[in-house]
Write a structure and sequence with these properties.
Helix content: over 70%
Shape: globular
Strand content: under 5%
Structural class: mainly alpha
Mean pLDDT: 84
Distance between the termini: 23 Å
Largest sheet: none
Number of domains: 1
Oligomer: single chain
Length: 282
Amino acid sequence: MQKKGLVQVNLAVLLFGMAGVLAKWIHIPAVGITFFRVLFSSASLFLFCMVTKTSIQIKEKRDILALVVAGCVLATHWCSFLGSIKMSTVAIGTITFSTFPLFVTFLEPMVFHEKLRGKDVLTAILVLVGVFITVPELSLENSMSKGIALGMLSSLTYAILSLINRKFMGKYPSTVISFYEQGTAMVVLVPVIMAQKIAPTGKDITLLIILGVITTAVAHTLFVNSLKYIKAKTAGIVSSMESVYGILLACILLGEQPGIRELIGAAIILGVVVATQIMKEN
């Protein structure tokens, strides 16, 4: 059964990593990609809940407000993540996104009144070193630097989203949480889509359906289901491979060759993240 869980979690993370490549192929702005991604994904999650007879009822009114806030954060996260990839490369977008444990390290003690440990600070410093090595030059006129800035924003917002979702763990199924968050993100982005008059082509729509259904809804379901067979620590370690899968797929399908600085930075960041996941459970 553990083998089944490992197959599912690796397939899920591989699909997550494919999202960046699809974004490069879609010829509309990042905000448009995000809108259609959450549109198709939330619709898929709703159908999944109906088929599996999973209740989507929210128990408390304050939970609705929290989920709406989470949806707004999710919209910001995916817009900045996809914007980072559009502005720079899949490698830059996925590497900078993988720094989100850095933000969790400092936000978690403040939100849940937990003690900030010295080794967590050291971990955060090492992750920052990896990011600075990746930066080609500190200039906002440089598209790579802009991509890194957006990637760090996507990392920060994902950390915030993770902390909000921690509130709901054990209270609602993850598919229900995702349905409401992605549905909210879709509604929030409607005015932006209308104002920008974004009109995807037929090819774009096909890729957006794949992005929303396969690399989001299906990947999410596979990831959650894998937790029935493997430990959360194992899933966390495999999750850190998302940027590796993303870089490999971009190299094969887009011809994006990561530079030596990106590879060194990625090695440091991923090494620290994996080591942290291992130590967390020991």
